[in-house]
Model the fold of this input.
Amino acid sequence: MDLAAQLKSVRQASQKLASSSLEERNQALRLIAAGLKRDKVSLFAANEQDVAQAEKNHVAPALLGRLHFDEKKLQSVLSGLEMVATLPDPIGKVLQRRKLDDSLLLEKVAFPLGVIGMIFEARPDALVQIVSLALKSGNGIVLKGGREADKSNTALVASIKKSLEETSFGSDWLLLIHSREETRRLFDMEGLIDLLIPRGSNTFVRYVMENTKIPVMGHSQGLCSIYVDDSCDIEQAVAVCVDAKVQYPSACNAVETLLVNRKIASVFLPLLKKQLETYGVIIHGDETCRRLIDCVPATDEDWDTEYLALEVAIKVVNSVEEAMEHIARHGSHHTDAILAEDETKQKLFLTQVDSADVFVNCSTRFADGYRFGLGAEVGISTSKLHARGPVGMEGLMTTKYLLKGSGNIVDSYSNGTSHFTHEELSLDGKAMNR
Done:
């Protein structure tokens, strides 16, 4: 069966999935979790083959870190599946209700997008997250993972499809493709694919955007910064910066640039360096930073580099305003944070930094669908249209306006026989106080 025919089958199956009950979809999520536990030995074996081949091919350490699918990551995806199963039903959710007239009720209601094409990096646990959100939100999904994880992804999809045999809607709404040619052809499937979500390098995301007419959602870089203000709790700030860099350095929400206020630099930087060097972090510092601690000289290129490794760039700045200017010039609108006790500076940073996630006094690593309580995420979007930030189920939904009348005609409103009331109603149907 060629790709177009397969996508038609996915679309037909997605309609059946979208009309299933909440209970059926939640049960399917739990069946998938049970199946992953049942098949974990074969899943780990497939992943070990991928990892061995990747090591043989000398892939980058950041990619290798994401590629591993072990007991720890299995437990993480199992927790995610259970969380998604406990979330409210997104299908048919009434978002707005308005009485246009006594016999005219308008509702804005959430419905699935349809079929989503997801092209993601060599990260097997992401596949399970994506499938769980597609299932719960009633969307068909076409998956293309990084070639380095092909055996892992194939084994995971086989396990998931086996578990879905017990459901009323089956598994035809889920399709895994493998070749670059299929991926390229996917870009031409306007009308069969409703949304493309690429996760990968800046070059790759740009390539997708420039070679398809299908709407594209995603982010091209995770160049995250933390500004350390002179009003911060220094001990707390050191701990947050260390966590943001070393907790999982290959993630897109790991910090890449630290902007440190000059007034505290002489105290803060030696303490930070002492902690970072225990993890083997390479520091690229500007001239002022290098006068205070021993580190590698930073170049102009460092301020635009997403290391995805145990490396960080540090710049000493004079103010929160200078830090925000740096972020505006070099950031990727992903996640940026301020560490400060001064509430005026906190507010300034929160309102003026133009990023999908803006934090105060916490690690950038919190920019994550699971940690936000979304259950999981298909990725993080830096777009200002539709979803922004970690994209969970709400980002996979669109809306319809549903209008219920009783033979109403527009002419009666044009000639003054009838009159609009435009009364805003609460979601329980009662009138709202104006």
Observations:
- The mean pLDDT is 92.
- The longest strand covers residues 104-112.
